[in-house]
Specification:
mainly alpha
């Protein structure tokens, strides 16, 4: 079986957020929860996967990491290298 990126659901403080998912994303979320349940042997609530997936997405987004650097300025002029 393929190794999933999410292995365990941590017990953490939460902030309530309401959102809507497309039908295809909802189906995939349920399928992911089922795959994780088979892998771990524990039932997984698909809703609990959403914050983990968002966190993983943001943690691996290079552009977002760049924007979060303390010395990065959104208003800084771009380097002019003749382009």
């Amino acid at each position: 079986m393929a190794k999933l990126k999410i292995e365990a659901i941590p017990d953490d403080k939460v902030a309530k957020v309401t959102t809507e998912l497309t039908a295809s994303v909802h189906r995939d979320l349920i399928a992911y929860a089922e795959a994780l349940a088979r892998q771990t042997g524990q039932r997984v609530d698909p809703v609990k996967l959403i914050p983990l997936m968002l966190a993983r997405f943001m943690a691996t987004d290079r552009g977002f990491k760049k924007l979060r650097r303390p010395n990065y300025s959104v208003n800084a002029p771009a380097d002019d290298k003749g382009g």
